[in-house]
Design goal:
3 domains; four-stranded antiparallel beta sheet; Tick-borne Encephalitis virus Glycoprotein, domain 1; five-stranded antiparallel beta sheet
Length: 506
Amino acid sequence: MTLLGELSLWVALVMAAWSAALSLAGGGLRRAAFAESGARGLLAAAAFTAIAVAGLLAALARRDFSLRFVASYTSADLPLAYAVAALWAGPDGAMLLGAFLLAACAGLAVRPGRGAEDDGEPWATGTLATILFVLLAVAALGANPYRRMDTVPPGGLGMPPRLQHPAMLVQPLVLSLGLVATAVPFAFAIAALVTRRVGENRVRAVRRWTVVAWSLLTTGIALGAWWTYDASAGATLWAWDPPVAASLLPWLTTGAYLAAGLAHERRGAERPWIVGLPVAGLPLAAFATGLAAGGIGGESPVINALGARTWFAIVVGMCALAAGGAARRMRAAVVEGIASRVGRGRRAGVALAIVGVALLAVGVAGFAFRRVQERLVTPGGSVMAPDPWGGTWRFAHRGLSRFDLPGRRVLALNLAVTRDDIARPNIVIEQREHLDARGVPAYEPVATAGVVRGLRQDLYVTVHTISLAEEAGLRIAFNPLVSWAWCGAALVVLGGIVALWPRAAA
């Protein structure tokens, strides 16, 4: 399966080049046969990219340490779920994943045989195939996850402890899908630029894919914020992680386009610059993808090769040229076509989004009243801490335990918890030392927090010191109303989809 996956990567690269060349030639020469061949070539590239990803996933699942990527991000005792998630933990796998997600989006957006009816279809297909070719070229030539090691190690290095979090299984995948989805409205807008015509079906497709990209970006950013919050033991709601922070740029442009479209629908105002927003969304997403392609635990091969300033300058230039060209050439006729009419059904979506924003604001405001306290608890003793709501919590030391698990050595503190003399479930705080296949510590020890979640507040308890006498220094954090922020973010996504999804004109 590994050899099949590696060969499929190269075949996908060739098919993407074929699709780009034939599609663009079909559009320029008005040859329907070329355009249809290009569309089928793009579907073939998507299929072979999927096989390449499946081959790498199989290597990760069976721990094929002959591959450098597998040996760098997995180990023999790593749980299967995290072994699969290692696909996006490093730059090589993340780049291949981005190519696969783009190929999947392109496969859904392109239909062979439609070029005879829509002269913009070959240009959209060629644009998507060109972008896919670039990603596959980087994956095959610069960051190939199928590179082999000269000597097969007895066990892998394992996944960094900070990545072994439940959010790791979902958030990078959702964020990456949101970033690559911006390529579809970009391709449709480029096709409209070339042909200077926009059909009603194309209009709804641009709007639909923009809503998909915005919704996924919103979900990915919210999950990234929750991951930061939980991994920091409730210390912060946001951290300027490069991929998540950079994804705010395409999120703003796609959201601004959708909001401007609604404003145009209500007021009928024609603004040529509106169409530049989805066009500029892809270059900004490319900047975020260049950071995300470094993987959650690595650095980006693209940005390392060009330099961060050069990469950012290229992105800004692409945005200026693309948005400026769109606004100059397409003018109000295209803007008028791109906006669909407001329907009554959008009101419920707007209401949901407003409620979500209100809940999000309440959660952020409640976090401002967080209370952090430090206590020293002795074996058999207990300490008390008041929360912001006037309740009194008691934490009783029930002893330390030391034990070994596959791949790590654990020191656990058991605390019995009560609030206002009402018993709560015990919490266990662990200090984990991750080991390699030889039993040697591979990373710095990490501590996990004891957590009690609720709608009124979240409680995080961590240990910052443990003495030889087993006295534990506790850091106790009460975070009021933070759960409301996550509920609000979910409502914003749901309301945005309901309010912004395009509907057929009456």
